[in-house]
């Protein structure tokens, strides 16, 4: 694909997309040195976090582990509000719930926000959990159920919950969006009886598959994902996160059942909620990429699968056709605040879900 951006409008969109995603991708590079200690970028991010609204409720425990906590930001409203369920990035080996892009815009639009921490794959690997990715993904599902259990107390609309996140947080969001219902209606635990389904998902720089064979076909210099299944030589050293992709690929058959359970691509089916994906560079299928971990190739292949299943999907990158929402928050605010009568026909299952909770 020709990556040259000629049209001035396309160039404008390129600048618009690159700014927020460049920071995301830098944070996802394992072991990347930061000049001058924390550096100007870290100081700027810290200042931005300090300026954003404080949580209504901070470090609410949804489990027993120190990482199983969330922050809740309440949008004032006389009626139950939609909710953004935010999952931070960091390759499932780092990151924190503190920084939420455009938090003020969601609250001003009447959308409450939850941002979660979760247990890292490195912690799972050290504890002998197989596969390690079970911890961050199951934590995301549990946190979502916990939030629904608090819907009455927090004035949240149980149905209108949209997930978002960057990179690993994006992958987690898509896994939730596509996975079959994980609620256990017969459980003695009231939280476990709550639904894990979503109204929509909008994500940045998502990995849409965790299958090394697919990644290699789509992007030959792929290197990410082995750590999710234990292919990481030293869980105490984040620099080794992507060190064993070749072993991951060679051992694919042995971990294939895990791949099929924890790869978002594997769970796509008709009736899934609408999806929005944004990437900082155009796709180049079959070619080596400067950043193979956040390539738009992931988005192109997932969009193909979603369309074949009849699921609504908007894919954004510099030069992308048919862009309706330049940024994640534009999409989420429109979807979460849409009047009931304006829900897309592609959302048939979600409309049924809405009726279930009202």
Structural class: alpha/beta
Q: Which superfamily, in CATH terms, is the homologous superfamily?
A: Alpha/Beta hydrolase fold, catalytic domain
The main β sheet shows up as: 8 strands, mixed
What's the tally of helices?
13
Q: Between the first and last Cα atoms, what is the distance in angstroms?
A: 48 Å
> Could you state the oligomeric state of the chains shown?
single chain
The portion of residues assigned to helices is 25-40%
Overall outline: globular
- Number-wise, the strands total 8
Report the uncertain regions.
Answer: 1-38, 344-358
Whole-number total of structural domains: 1
CATH topology: Rossmann fold
Radius of gyration: 19 Å
Strand sequence of the main sheet, in spatial order? Answer: 1-2-4-3-5-6-7-8
The arrangement of helices and strands along the chain is HHEEEHEHHHEHEHHHEHEHH
Name of the CATH class: Alpha Beta
Strand content: 5-15%
Q: What CATH architecture label applies?
A: 3-Layer(aba) Sandwich
């Amino acid at each position: 694909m020709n990556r040259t951006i000629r049209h001035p409008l396309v160039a404008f969109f390129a600048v618009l997309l690159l700014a927020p995603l460049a920071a995301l991708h830098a944070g996802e590079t394992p072991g990347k040195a930061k000049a001058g200690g924390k550096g100007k970028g870290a100081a700027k991010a810290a200042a931005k976090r300090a300026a954003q609204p404080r949580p209504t409720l901070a470090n609410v425990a949804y489990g027993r582990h120190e990482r199983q906590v969330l922050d809740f930001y309440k949008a004032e409203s006389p009626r139950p509000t939609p909710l953004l369920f935010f999952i931070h990035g960091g390759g499932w080996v780092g990151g924190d719930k503190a920084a939420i892009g455009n938090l003020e815009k969601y609250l001003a639009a009447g959308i409450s926000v939850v941002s979660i921490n979760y247990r890292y794959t490195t912690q799972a690997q050290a504890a002998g959990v197989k596969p390690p990715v079970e911890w961050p993904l199951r934590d995301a599902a549990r946190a979502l159920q916990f939030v629904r259990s608090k819907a009455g107390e927090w004035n949240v609309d149980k149905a209108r919950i949209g997930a978002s996140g960057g990179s690993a947080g994006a992958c987690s969001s898509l896994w939730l969006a596509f996975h079959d219902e994980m609620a256990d209606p017969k459980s003695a635990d009231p939280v476990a009886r709550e639904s894990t389904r979503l109204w929509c998902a909008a994500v940045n720089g998502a990995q849409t598959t965790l299958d090394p064979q697919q990644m290699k076909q789509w992007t030959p210099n792929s290197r990410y994902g082995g750590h999710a299944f234990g292919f990481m030589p030293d869980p105490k050293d984040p620099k080794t996160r992507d060190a064993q992709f070749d072993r991951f690929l060679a051992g694919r058959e042995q971990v294939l059942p895990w791949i099929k359970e924890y790869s978002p691509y594997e769970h796509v089916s008709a009736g899934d909620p609408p999806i929005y994906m944004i990437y900082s560079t155009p796709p180049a299928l079959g070619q080596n990429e400067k950043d193979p971990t956040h390539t738009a190739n992931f988005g192109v292949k997932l969009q193909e699968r979603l369309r074949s299943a009849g699921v609504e999907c908007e894919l954004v990158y510099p030069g992308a056709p048919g862009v309706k929402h330049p940024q994640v928050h534009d999409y989420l605010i429109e979807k979460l605040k849409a009047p009931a009568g304006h829900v897309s026909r592609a959302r048939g299952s979600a409309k049924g879900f809405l009726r279930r909770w009202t």
